[in-house]
Amino acid sequence: MTESPRPRLDFRAALAAYLGPQKGRVAILSLFLLAAIGLQLLGPLILKRFVDNAAPGPAALPMTSLWALAGVYIAAALLTQGAQVGAAWFSEQVGWTATNRLRRDLAAHVLGLDLTFHNARTPGELIERVDGDVTALATFFSQFVMQILGSALLLTGIIVLITLQDWRIGLALGLFAILAAFLISRTTQIGAPRWASERQARSDVAGFLEERLGGLDDIRANGGASHVMDRHGELTVALNRAGRRAGRMGLAMNTSINALYTIGLGISLIGGILLFQSRQVSLGTVYLFVQYTGMMANPLAQIGMQLQQFQSAGAGLGRVRRIQAISTRIADGTGVAWPSGPPGLAFRHVTFAYEGRGPVLQDVSFDLAAGQTLGLLGRTGSGKTTLIRLLFRLYEIGEGEILLGGQDIRQATLAQLRAGIGVVTQEVQLFEASVRENVTLFDPAIADARILTVLDEIGLGPWLSRLPAGLDSDLTAGGLSAGEAQLLAFARVFLREPSLVVLDEASSRLDPATDRLIEQAMDRLLRPDPARPPRTAIIIAHKLATVRRADRILILDHGKVAEFGARADLAADPGSRFSGLLRSGIEGVLT
Amino acid sequence: MTATTDSARAETLDPAGQGGAWRHGWGLARAHPWLFTANIAGYIVFYSLPLLGGLFMRAVFDRLGGHARAGLDLWTLVGLLLGAQLLPQLVLFGASAAWFAFAYAMEGMLRRNLLGHLVAAPGPKSLPASVGDMVSRFRDDALAIVWFVEAWVDLSGLIVFTIVSLTIMASISPAIAAVAAVPMVLIVILTNHLALRIHHYRRLNREATARVTGFLGETFGAVQAIQVASAEHRILSRLTALNDTRRKAAVADQIFNVMLDTVSNNMGRIGLGLVLLISAGALRQGAFTVGDFTLFVAYTGFASVGPQWIGRLMARRRTAAVSIGRMEAGLEGAAPYALTAPRPTPPPIADYNDPLDVLQARGLTSLYSDTRRGIEDVSLTLRRGGLTVVAGEVGAGKTTLIKALLGLVPLQGGEILWNGRPVADPATFMIPPHCAYTAQAPRLFSESLRDNLLMGIDDDGAALARAIRLAILEDDLAEMEKGLETIVGTRGVTLSGGQLQRAAAARMFLREPDLILLDDASSALDVRTERLFWQRLLDGGGRTCLAVSHRPEAYRRADEIILLSHGRVAARGTLESLLETSADFRQTWRDITLAGEAR
Fold first, then answer.
1. Based on the domain organization, do B94 and B147 belong to the same domain?
2. pLDDT digit string (tens) for B384-411?
3. Residue B512, domain CATH
4. Domain co-membership, B367 together with B336
5. In angstroms, what is the C-alpha Rg of chain A?
6. How far is CA B87 from the centre of its chain?
7. N or C terminus: which one in chain A shows less Cβ crowding within 10 Å?
8. Pairing state between β B435-438 and B515-519
9. Residue A29: how many CA atoms within 13 Å on its side-chain side?
10. Minimal Cα–Cα distance from B18 to chain A, Å?
11. Distance of CA B432 to the CA centre of its chain
12. What Å distances lie between residue B200 and A9, B93, B95, B196, B206, CA to CA?
């Protein structure tokens, strides 16, 4: 679980962190880039010679030299092609390698955050964070070197070559280029927040769609279509507005760059004509000035365009950085040495509240000895699920402590803690992947034979045999009923061999026949080897049938312990809540 | 399912599509006539203005070189040249503003039409891909179609430029103009060839991207399960593998795009080299002035842009065709070109003039094609005010039966009769006020609890209070600090399982339907809450209900119990009669009431 400290993500740090490991590729990329630039600079020099030396006169070159010049021009064009494609290939490789690493790091970071973070965000929104924003950054990584640096180099080359012809024009255009670059970078800063709001509006749409598409049946069968379309309309209007505002800003920038370019053209043309009229330069040199100034338009526009991308990359990076800055509230422990065998469990004065809500658990204390099974009862909303989440440290407890095997769970590493506990929840999350990958949760170390044995034991054998490609079948291809999904969740726990088992309303959705399968599986899960002590277990159930196997009973009411004791004692005490529950359960059967 | 295979087949048979992309693009344009016209006009003006710049450049250099032509003096010409340089940018400002308005409008329309169909159109709807993949279709594929139309806009201006520039060059020197035109033809051929390859790599790229986003979506939807199973690093290795595939596809895709861009530029340069080769003689003889030379350089340099956009147009058409296919996979059962229809599918409004007396289903059959599971030949009759409970083991077809009645799954046979009249399309008829539904694992959305319950209904307070009482949600609401204004987390995760079910039930009750369909909706409720739930539901009178349940309370109150087994009706009757006649049912009942016997 311990990750290396994450890089602080400003642009320079991002470049260093993600391009650093690819030094070799970056070097080759630079070579291609320099070649492409040099070849581009050659063109106007050839045109100058043509203008000066093609027309009849004292300076006229022989025709063969003119044809040779034309040949060089064509060859340069061909070489440029090769250099550009080579540069593009390396820059894309560098860019994608870098951003894929960023995607992975970001996904790792997000996966490490606690549920307080996740409950406030839709999966669609997180897709935008981890993929959408990073894709905007991909352009930054792969195009930054290509376009911004390349453009800057090209501009410098142009200024130098003009200066060689006439230093006054060179100086004027040099100053002009610096001014233009300065103005461009200033306008960039104005635009960034607008692109940020465009991206936010886009991710709002994605989050909205993700949720609604996941709940299509609920919407359709309850007549929610027009409401959903109205909301989509509102979000679309918001996106349009944000996008047009951001676009206008980019346009204003573009237009100002080109207005600047017109000034540059004015400088070189008027300056060139004046020098030509005073016979200080040739007509070809005037044309060279015009051509080179013309060549400045492209890199200037490129810088402008890339800065537009840069704006959205900057907005993306800002959001990436904000996510990176969120740290989990759950501090990893240093690790403990648990003895082998089932652990005992104890809650000591545990109090917890979700952010901005009233307390869900208040001063909860109980003891469960090693190898015992706890039956956890209570109305819905009484805090049962929360209690389990705290045990896994999905949330950090407010006050009190939880002891597992005699040690505070905060001392254990999260990996250590969670490896020791297996849970079957009501909601079973499946992946669009093979049956094998779903059962093992992508663990390739688990042998097929073991998976098959477990699936068979749990009663999924007949289901598996119906699938076209066995364990390799795509899970989502076959209709998997809720009960079968539940059994699959059981199989996941079986494979992990935890020392503490939690069944959270595990049997609530199953029909009686599957319930029987589960009961048998549960027997094996709680006591895998009759020769050894059983596993420690917590079972949450509303059905009294499931409670039969509990040694201890804990009844929660509004987050407080309403009753705790040995099942047999509570059942025998006619005044206990538990016996009252048993009676109300039986009552129906008897009448 | 058929839509996916159809579009897949269309793709393999004819990688170029059948002009469908053109018609879709035209549909988008027609829906926004003013924006479209403004864009075309704006870009024609924008691309035509450089023609003037070339003419002024020629005049300036001819004057400097001693070949005076027009009567204007040198500095006026310089002024005009600079003006011709600045003007296009001002035009572009207006044209691009129009483009942004047009582009966002088209994108919104594509999303609206697809979403509208999925939530509102007749017939059962199933997503052709994972939700994450679908989101990418709504996002990336919609944009790909918009970019196709962008190519029309640019190309319309460039065609005007190309024709006029060739005409001007030909009037100066037909031979040199002909040489300048050669690379333009080559660019079209080359780009067309590249575009074919681009189509292939773009599709691979999109598929690889969709796999990454789909996987991320599933991962972030399953964070809790991943964390408790300590599966983070395994999830990340899978992400790394998917990332790698995507990188390869993306690099290939991008390289071909770069080639498309640079090839035309460099072909343009080669064209210019040819002009140099040919014009050298003419310059020497004085038949071709320096001014003419500068005009040819200017026009030839820009002339590659038009053919390049032709190549781009072809590439984007292919990409758009793929994207259209991917979006249309979600438009099963829609009219052709529904994706770009000017009006979306209107939300269904059930014409309510016939309150329920009796609902009959005859011989309902709905089987999943791959597993042959589902229901076969199931009939039932629901009478006003009655409770029918569906029982059966896992995979017996209980949920399918409920969904078949609601029109959420396709029927291969059978019919549904409302008061004796056949229901033509259950999907648009079995909705409020005829019918409402609470799913086995209901979905709520990231909005306030109030918005979730109302889902667009006008709130008169009393109805909301009634629904909340029926769903036994009052106590939970009282405990929430913000009550109905509590923001429900993603998919309702800030609520407990039972609260989620009862909130969904309240959403259903609020619609005051004649018929209520409950798919195991009380499974997460404890015994007391559940008893209260059935009591309030049934004692109000008049509510007709079909429920999947495993709870004794429901069976006891049922007017009829239908026991399903392997998709067929195994037994039916009241609790007493079934206990007498059906051994299967006795077994079921024993399992359910095991709690009692265990004592």
1. yes
2. 999 999 998 877 899 999 999 999 999 9
3. 3.40.50.300
4. no
5. 35
6. 40
7. C
8. parallel
9. 23
10. 30
11. 26
12. 36, 35, 33, 7, 10
Strands A399-404 and A407-408: antiparallel
Distances (CA, A) of B458 to B215, B364, B485, B510: 38, 36, 16, 10
- Is B350 among the domain residues? no
Under-50 pLDDT residues of chain A: 1-9, 507-509, 586-591
**B297 within some domain:** yes
CB A517 within 8 A of CB A459: yes
Do B73 and B161 fall into the same domain? Answer: yes
- Which has more confidence, B499 or A312? B499
Beta bridge mates, A554: A376, A564
Q: Is A189 on the interface with B (CB under 8 A)?
A: no
Tell me: do B562 and B449 sit in the same domain: yes
Distance from CA of A89 to the nearest CA of B (A): 6
Q: Which of A61, A45, A41, A65 is nearest to A53 (CA)?
A: A61
Summary mean pLDDT of chain B: 86
Residue in chain A lying closest to B391 (CA): A511
Helix spans in A403-481 (H): 414-419, 435-440, 448-457, 461-466
Residue in chain A nearest B457 by alpha carbon: A227
Number of helices and strands in chain B (H, E): 22, 10
Q: What is the 3 state secondary structure string of B251-316?
A: HHHHHHHHHHHHHHHHHHHHHHHHHHHHHHHHHHHCCCCHHHHHHHHHHHHHHCHHHHHHHHHHHH
Handedness of CA B533, B537, B539, B544 (dihedral sign): negative
Structure tokens at A71: 């040949």
pLDDT of residue B594: 53
Q: What is the CATH number of domain A345-430+480-590?
A: 3.40.50.300
Pull the structure tokens for residue B19. 């002009």
Q: What is the ipTM, given to two decimal places?
A: 0.87
Q: What is the pTM of this model?
A: 0.74
A158 HSE (CA, 13 A, CB side):
31
List, as ranges, residues 476-515 from B with C-beta within 8 Å of A: 476, 479-481, 489-491, 493-494, 496-499, 502, 504, 507-508, 511
| B568 CB burial (10 A radius; 0-12, 13-18, 19+) | middle
| Minimum CA–CA partner of B554 in chain A | A588
Average pLDDT estimate for B556-567:
91
Number of domains in chain B: 2
Residues B551 and B581 in one domain: yes
Tokens of B364: 């309902």
B561 & B521 share domain? yes
DSSP states of B94-126:
HHHHHHHHHHHHHHHHHHHHHHHHHHHSSS---
Residues B448 and B514 grouped into a single domain: yes
Find the angle CA(A351)-CA(A354)-CA(A357) to the nearest 5 degrees.
100
Residue with tokens 């080179």: A292
Residue range(s) in chain A whose domain bears CATH number 1.20.1560.10: 11-325
Q: Look up the domain containing B532 and give its range.
A: 358-598
How many beta carbons lie within 10 A of that of residue B250, not counting itself? Answer: 27
State the CATH class of domain A11-325.
mainly alpha
Closest to B57 (Cα-Cα) out of A283, A302, A175, A66: A283
Gap between the Cα atoms of B106 and B145, Å rounded: 9
For chain B positions 143-202, those within 8 Å of chain A (CB to CB) are none
